[in-house]
Write a structure and sequence with these properties.
Elements: E1 2-3, E2 6-7, H1 13-16, E3 20-24, H2 30-45, E4 49-51, H3 54-58, H4 62-70, E5 73-78, H5 84-91, E6 98-101, H6 117-133
Parallel strand pairs: 3-4, 3-5, 5-6
Antiparallel strand pairs: 1-2
Helix pairs in contact: 2-6
This protein binds iron/sulfur cluster (SF4).
Iron/sulfur cluster (SF4) binds next to helix 2.
């Protein structure tokens, strides 16, 4: 759904039943920010993909937990081996459809918010291929 050309995010679990929901740890590091930008890119470029707030899921917001739970394809993006995003969803009893950790894809974790756009492209393409593979 779009409004004024803006892509609208789901506001209930029912809408999420037909969407690929993406949660990223959004960590304060190069790899966390790559994960965030991948989630943004997929939301903007893939018709059925929508980012959801990982912090709201962690905080126990019923609405957001429901969105993550009802999505047939929940994609979880972690920055580093601590895998915070995966832990958050699993703590809520939600089984991800696909999990990826940016630092395990040959990208070094650096304590900076700067990153290489090419890495965003590469991780995005890997996730897109995974989504297609399972269609
Ligand atoms: S997974 Fe790593 S980068 Fe992401 S929030 Fe946790 S510690 Fe930070």
């Amino acid at each position: 759904m779009t409004k004024n050309g803006w892509q609208i995010l789901p506001n209930c679990g029912k809408e999420a039943e037909r969407l690929d929901i993406i949660v990223a740890c959004d960590g304060a590091s190069s790899v966390g920010q790559i994960g965030h930008m991948v989630a943004v890119k997929l939301t903007k470029e893939i018709e059925a993909a929508r980012m959801c707030c990982i912090t709201a899921i962690a905080a126990g917001s019923k609405l957001h937990v429901d969105i993550a739970k009802k999505s047939p394809k929940l994609i979880v993006i972690n920055g580093c081996p601590l895998k915070c995003a995966s832990k958050v969803v699993k703590d809520k009893g939600i089984k991800p459809y696909y999990e990826i950790t940016v630092s395990e894809e040959g990208i070094e974790k650096v304590p900076t918010l700067d990153f290489d756009e090419k890495d965003v492209e590469r991780i995005s393409n890997k996730i897109i291929n995974k989504i297609k593979e399972k269609n």
